Amino acid sequence: MKRIKKWLSLGLVVVLAFALAACNNKESSGSGSGGKGSDEQIELNFWSFGATGYDKLIEEYEKEHPNIKIKFKTSETADHHDALFTALSAGSGAPDIALLELDQLDRFKAAQDRFNNLYDLGAKDVQDKYLEWKWDGGANLDGDFLIGLPTDIGPKALYYRTDVFEAAGLPTEPEEVEKLISSPEAFVEAAKTVKEKTGKPFVDTIEMAYRAYLDTAEEAYLNPKGELIADKEGSEVKKAYDFAAELWEKGYVGPAEMWSPEWSNGVKNGDFAVALGAGWFKGWLKDNAPEASGKFRVANLPEEFAANWGGSYLSIPKETEHAQEAYDFIEWLVAPEQQLKSFQDAGLFPSAVEVYDMEEFKSMEDEFFGGQVSSVVFAKAAQDIQGLPFKGEKYFPVHEAITNGLLNVQTGKDPEKEWEAGIKKAKDLLSR
Hints:
Elements: H1 9-29, E1 42-49, H2 54-64, E2 68-75, H3 77-90, E3 97-101, H4 105-109, H5 132-137, E4 149-161, H6 162-167, H7 174-180, H8 184-198, H9 206-214, H10 236-249, H11 261-269, E5 274-278, H12 281-288, E6 296-299, E7 308-315, H13 323-333, H14 336-346, H15 359-362, H16 374-384, H17 395-409, H18 415-431
Helix pairs in contact: 9-10, 17-18
């Protein structure tokens, strides 16, 4: 420990006194100064997006903490993040708690001063409960400021249609499929077999094919200085782009754009063999393609494709007047017990490692997947992930510029020209 000069000793005593008082206050109240055991009535505004199922957990928390009222607002993903960014920029109107999506996270890390550092509110005490790569993603580059607590993650797996595999003469049991498709080369070979034997494309969309390598990249479009690196020698993004374009040219990729009505119909009808989807994708399948129940299974991807796609973090904007109460709630919300409930109710895949050993998690037979316990497949995938790539403040528009180029390839445009056009657009975006 560093030596402290005598003239600082009085200040240190004062700091320690305040710290001890704060700790004693937290212990006596049960959950912060306005937590269980406090009579102060506190209202927390919580902005979210998507189908999280958090409304049920909020009711549970409010019953345990009758002095806490949480106003829960959910919006479309883009609308949510834009409204939050506007409020933070204006310095007023931000909520007490905000959910941040992974691809949008660096945009908000650039405004770090508008958020509370969760390390100052007690986050270090729970750090070891979560996957290391997920936790690190919520911190700044120096690792001394935590903008968000880990919620769900998106470990990827191979979603495959057993009926299409069977028609192509391929095995259908998950263990056998993992042995068959054990490398990118074997993946392409299986694609060739399916195309030749059934006439169907192997991968559902060109974006799924692109993300096979993109999501594994240690460096994606930008470096920490905000400079474009996708066009540099040895670019992992270019490797991913070329892989997707090649699969398309060979007829191994479906023609529909992801999330379009045509793609949705293809999912229902079995118009392709596989999707390289994250854990949250199975929730979409169950809700939107009930006709496909029993026809899908999941298997672990080749190591070269092991990656995360999606997930979120819970943050506390600086302008809140109830930072500790907000923190106490989000720490409870992402605790292992609540993450298990979020997974069971809404399909949010847990980032808290101990959930993977819970009997309820390991025994969740999934009727949609023919009775397969798919949770253990994604748990293995989650633990195989090495880290998250740096994305940067302008990741989203740059990503869109490149993926739009791939969509143009599907209309007959030249892949190299579309790549060059996408890079030019990305540079223009970064120069603004």
